[in-house]
Write a structure and sequence with these properties.
Layout lengths: L18 H20 L4 E6 L5 H9 L3 E7 L2 H14 L5 E5 L15 E4 L8 H4 L3 H6 L7 H10 L6 E7 L4 H7 L4 E11 L2 E10 L1
Parallel strand pairs: 1-2, 1-4, 2-3, 4-5
Antiparallel strand pairs: 5-7, 6-7
Bound molecules: S-adenosylmethionine.
S-adenosylmethionine binds next to α1, α2, β2 and α5.
């Protein structure tokens, strides 16, 4: 679904919403619906790599009882997503932090119910990963999973309900499951073919 009704500000250096973004929205709409039914209290959702803010804004508009916190490595994404959230959401429903993944959060004070990441997952050279912020939006390194691995390492420090992330089916996803098998249970919850690739959405739970 392309959500033509949601008009967002843009920045040429920030990843614009596209098919992977819409896939993540579709998956999370269903997941959040379940969480709300299962819990009789407010819910905190953290989006890592928030980009334009599109996913969190769509979900926050649909579920006004959920609070969102977004992070992004790129200060341009952090600024743009903040502006977009300000245009569409009440100020007490969101916060944005410019940081690498979840690195600066204190695990004893931050335990979101849901964490999700539409990460850079395209197979690229290491040089591509070191270019500008826009390249960092998609450059996933030689196996496509360099940033995902770092994200999962971060997750080991936190208490959270469930985490979700996307990857390409052509990436070395089995090595993620192998490397983190002591810490997490992985489940593929959805797949979608987009243009020349097939995306896969994983659910992650602590053991
Ligand atoms: C594929 S884009 C997704 C953007 C947006 N969530 C969406 O779905 O349209 C990946 C986003 O992750 C951000 N990013 C890349 N590496 C990151 C890191 N180590 N920590 C936080 N954000 C990161 C990029 O700046 C970019 O905004």
């Amino acid at each position: 679904m392309a959500f033509p009704e949601l008009k967002l500000k843009k920045n040429p250096n920030v990843y614009p919403p596209q098919e992977d973004t819409w896939f993540m929205v579709d998956v999370l709409e269903t997941q959040l619906h379940r969480e709300i039914l299962n819990r009789n209290r407010s819910i905190l959702v953290c989006e890592v790599g928030i980009g334009s803010g599109f996913i969190s804004i769509v979900l926050a508009k649909k579920y006004p009882m959920i609070n969102f916190i977004g992070t992004d490595l790129s200060y341009q994404s952090a600024i743009l997503s903040f502006k977009n959230m300000k245009d569409h959401l009440p100020r007490n429903q969101y916060d944005i932090v410019c940081m690498d993944r979840l690195r600066s959060f204190n695990p004893s004070k931050f335990s979101p119910d849901i964490i999700f990441f539409n990460p850079p997952y395209v197979r690229t050279s290491l040089e591509e990963m070191r270019k500008g912020f826009l390249e960092k939006s998609w450059a996933g390194g030689p196996k496509g999973i360099t940033v995902i691995q770092e994200f999962l390492k971060d997750l080991t420090r936190f208490f959270f309900g469930k985490a979700f992330f996307l990857s390409s089916i052509f990436n070395e996803n089995e090595s993620l499951e192998r490397d983190f098998k002591e810490e997490f249970i992985f489940r593929v919850i959805s797949q979608r073919k987009i243009e020349n690739e097939k995306l896969i959405c994983y659910e992650v739970r602590s053991r």
